[in-house]
Design a protein that fits this description.
single chain, about 280 residues, mainly beta, 14-stranded antiparallel sheet, 3 helices, 14 strands, about 10% helix, disordered N terminus
């Protein structure tokens, strides 16, 4: 994480005292430091190496045990250098995950707006979050623990490398660089906060298309809360699990698979490409 223009955070002289509710104390400390770090300077946005265009892909969402949870569509259209990308999953239990990102690709990828809707029993907390980088506003509508609708609007210093709705697009453009790539991300929570995503290519892994062998680059995406918050998050159970994404690189990079949570605190669900099935003729 870049520390340019910020005061360094030091652990020298830090002394933890006994507290009657240590876990709650640590949780509040983590939250406080996370808020302090939310306005930090960001890395450069990802360079456009492969321009996005017209796409309609079919996806399947599966549990860690392999059960099919939802069917999905990735629909993408472009007008000049402006692209609208929509990812929607329809769950068997009636739940819906629907995210639409609008971005420009002028030398670098730059998010304009992102709208995320999650509703239904598959999600621990239904959520409707809109990000507008022009106004620097993040608007959230959600249902609290008592079933009451709530809304909140936060003004955040949204950096140029904001990656909401763009993760797959960015992975197809960072290549197989050995150095970690860091981007910013607004965590979809009732009180939205900026975090950093650290992306590392860990090597290639084989897969097969029918009987043809291919190799996909395996990327690990780690959420970095930064500073003391990052150090204490594992102690209070707040550190999100690492996400795993596989991309077929080359002259036309393509998404192959991912293991990632769809919401904060959620399980690692697998997203895979799906093939259409046809009714057999009699």
């Amino acid at each position: 994480m870049s520390l340019a223009g910020t005061a360094p955070v030091s652990l020298v002289g830090l002394r933890l005292v006994r507290h009657p509710n240590m876990k709650g104390f640590l949780a509040r400390l983590v939250l406080g430091v996370a808020l302090a770090w939310s306005g930090m300077a960001s890395a450069e946005p990802v360079t456009v190496r492969h321009a996005e265009g017209l796409v309609h892909g079919f996806l399947a969402l599966r549990s860690p045990e392999g059960a099919t949870l939802a069917s999905g569509d990735l629909i993408q259209v472009g007008h000049g250098d402006r692209v609208t990308s929509r990812l929607v999953f329809h769950f068997r239990d009636g739940s819906v995950h629907d995210e639409t990102a609008v971005f420009v690709q002028r030398g670098h990828f730059r998010l304009l707006t992102d709208h995320l809707v999650q509703k239904g029993p598959a999600f621990a907390q239904p959520m409707d979050m809109t990000i507008d980088t022009h106004t620097s506003e993040v608007a959230v509508r959600y249902t609290d623990d008592h079933g009451k609708p709530r809304s909140d609007v936060e003004r955040l210093d949204l950096p140029a490398d904001l990656a909401n709705g763009l993760i797959i697009t960015l992975l197809k453009n960072i290549g197989e660089t050995a150095s970690p790539v860091t981007v910013s991300f607004v965590a979809p929570t009732p009180k939205p906060r900026l975090v950093k995503l650290v992306i590392t290519a860990t090597g290639k892994e084989p897969f097969w298309v029918t009987h043809s062998a291919r190799e996909a680059t395996h990327y690990v995406i780690k959420t970095d809360l930064g500073g003391v918050a990052g150090l204490l998050a594992p102690l209070v159970g707040k550190q999100p699990p690492d996400s795993q994404v596989w991309i077929l690189n080359g002259e036309a990079p393509a998404f192959v698979r991912s293991d990632a949570p769809l919401f904060v605190g959620g399980p690692l669900w697998r997203t895979e490409l799906a093939s259409p099935a046809w009714r057999r003729s009699r």
